[in-house]
Amino acid sequence: MPNDKGWKPRLRNWITGRPGEEHVTLALSVVIGALVGLVVVAFILLTGRLAARMYPPGVETAWRRVMVPALGSLVTGYLLWKFFPQARGSGIPQTKFAIFVTEGYISLRTVIGKFVCCSASLASGIALGREGPSVHIGAGIASVLGRRCGLSPRNVKALIPVGASAALAAAFNTPIAAVLFSLEEVLGDMHAPVLGSVVLSSATSWMVLHLLLGDEPLFHVPPYHLVHPAEFLVYAVLGIVGGLGSASFVKLLLVMRVWFKRLPPSTRWFQPVAGGLLVGVLGLFLPEVLGVGYDYVEKVLGGDMLLRTVAVLAVLKIIATATCYSSGNAGGIFGPSLFIGATLGGVVGSLAHAVFPSWTASPGAYALVGMGAAFAGIVRTPLTSVIMIFEMTRDYSIIVPLMIANLISFFVSQRLQRQPIYEALAHQEGVFLPGDEAREHLAGMRVSDILRKGLPLQADATLASLAERLQEANRNTWLVARDGVLWGVITRAEIMAAGHARVVRDVVGPESQFAYVHADQPLSLALKKMGDAGLDILPVVSRADIRQLLGIVTLTETLNAYGLGRNDV
What we know:
The protein is mainly alpha-helical. It contains 22 helices and six strands.
């Protein structure tokens, strides 16, 4: 019988009138929205106050531009290495890890570390943004509250996109785009059953932001008007440029991150200084490179910067942001992607206006569209980027050019860099998040529906004994493991072709490549992989470690699940 004693059950009953976790989750959505809104507002204010102390208004000294980012990254790098190892980077991949790998768990220490380290590093001038970290902080707060209220892991996981949506709504002042991003990118399912909770938390957080900081869009832009229908061709060109710039940024970031990861582990605490020092040196020549640069974005949107300066800033921001992120600093890529897009759009708009002055709008309009194009190309959320730019500027007339440029940028970036940035970052950490194949409707059959335990063969077993086992079980495939670590699979054909080999490890080694699936993937994918590889057993592995065996699926049981097989196993 459930225990009715203690404050948790009483709180649950007081809120809902009945002990149902779904009702607690819905009530917590309002609490999470309000609390996350307050924390994000504090994050914004603290970062701004610290930046004002580090760069006092009216005090322009070259040494500050170099020393402050370098020292800031040194201090936060040590804190991240010593106390908060899970607070590095933007936080979006870690938020997705919580949903798909760790049963919704994000520690309170990580939330605190993200808040402290990001506040310090962003205030020091690191070329990263606050929105990604805000999402991680919001998801962490939701996770902590869900666990403290005694919710099951399933319902704690459901709160992760709730906290993420609340954080983005407050950080960007975009409640609708926050909902779309949480469903489109964080959860990967636009039809998720948590839609109501996500909307509720986003609206609550947005109201808290307005009560404390007022009702102001992130950017103020002049009204946009389509000058001539031929302008759509220029916006198409801008989409191509945005896609090329996005793919270049993502590729550079991923390559640099691999290089930093290959350095000795003893240097990990010192690596962030590389990003801080580079930003400081670039800031000597162009102070606009420092920080996320929203003030300068507004200048580009207003057409108040020289073409040469805007073009140079586009290149330097790509290099600076990629270096800051790859070296292990705490901060996100949302804000820098908007900066990169605005500068790319400003360059295209300035050139187009110089050649066709009577057919094109001012460069600021193209800078605005460029922001959405770069966001769509880098983050790979074209729908979210359209709504986000609209909400940030509140200019509906720019929607059609935005859609044209965003879709083209998304297509070009996808062709040049197949793997989305957050999925690629997860793979570099050895975590395999769901890709497009896992975004089928949740009502479809999953691998977990027929998952069962499997007994792998030890690598020291003889091939003769394995052949007998396959014959007795009427199987074509068997799993191979050693000391609890999955090595791969071996088939009857591989045994026949083994030649003079006598034991299994002579055929399958610890580094062998093999087909596998994850428990949350569609069952249709398991069937396809078995068919492609000629297997009748497929290992089901952890997303955090593909050498960790969770169970198996068999061809017979898979066909039975589709009503095509026999009843025997």
